[in-house]
Specification:
single chain, 426 residues, alpha+beta, Outer membrane efflux proteins (OEP), 4-stranded antiparallel sheet, 69% helix, rod-shaped
Length: 426
Amino acid sequence: MKRIALLCGYLLAGLAANAQVTLDECRRLAREHYPEIRQYDLVRRTEQYTLSNARREWLPQLSLAAQATWETDVPSFPDALAGMLAQQGIDMPGMNKDQYKVALELNQTLWDGGKSGANKRIAQAEAAEQARSADVDLYALQGRVDNLFFGILLLDERIAQTRLTIDLLRSNLDKVRALQRNGVAMQTDADAVEAELLTVNQQLTQITASRESYRRMLEVFIGRPLGGEPLARPDVAEPRTFEPARPELALFDATADKLTAQERLVKSATRPCFGLFAQGYYGYPGMDYFQSMMSSDWSWNALVGVKMSWNFGAYYTKKNSLNKLRTAQAQVEVQRDIFLFNTRLQTTEENGDIARLRKALADDDRIVALRRSVREAAESKLRNGVIDTNDLLQKITDEATAATARSAREIELLKSIYELKHTLNR
């Protein structure tokens, strides 16, 4: 049992040691950690509120009103009729000039000309446009994460190559000191190699500090510490298609949909609206004017009916409003064409960079091999007692420069491929 526990411990330790942070994981964490991710929930909630309000437009609308008026003239009996009634002892004072009313009115829309439907469509289109705008912002965030990720990989390669150079200088320093003890080399030879070693160590310190700075910035983006976890180098597969699938294109579509929905709203404003209504009021005078002329008592009154309203003033601005929206749609299409043109131009440029880097990388392997061969020949002379320290240091520097350039170009090629993928969203 104890052996099994130890074995499991070793396996877990090995897995932890081999754990690497991938580019996809960094992108996902950065997206989840970025504050704008909360925008999606806010957009969804705003859409729900607006749609709920649009649906409630079909609910019966109840209103309460009260008024008190004094009128300069009111309906009255003719003087002859009033005189005849007075002779018979009937007093007909007529209607009072002060009038009062407390009314409750109920309206139910039967058809609003398509206004509520257009408002719902606009609410959905605006929510889609805002969501696509958030997609664009988060996609730009992905590019920033990619730049940091590949920047760290490049610095990792420079650190690895610098450490190899340090090991090589230390090995040769030991050889020079051995020759010095045998009286073959001079102190200045050892000093020259040691000075170069110290210089390269300084470079390593600076590169390491830069890498740590990049890692800290990446930690801010992804919202968690990287610790000592290395970054995994992504694959070098190029996109299979060069047709762009960028979120900006979806944003253009959403904007066009919103403008189309607004056209429906403009058209709905020129249509008639039908509805039912019911009104009840308590006051004076009532609907029975004859009774109100005989008595100033308040009474209950009610009426129901069907009504139609048609705003012809909407026709005055309909043409200009539609032309304005169609001009905006044309502007969206122009922006789409400009974006696609720039994307194709950038894609062509990035493909050219990839081809150039592949060709240069093929030559780099041969250059590094030749520099290594020259350096090994110089070391062979050193072992044989033929001392030329400056020549040896130059050969070591040449090899280190070639190896560093080769590793940097490899990372640059990888970065260019992912920049192309980012340009196309593939």
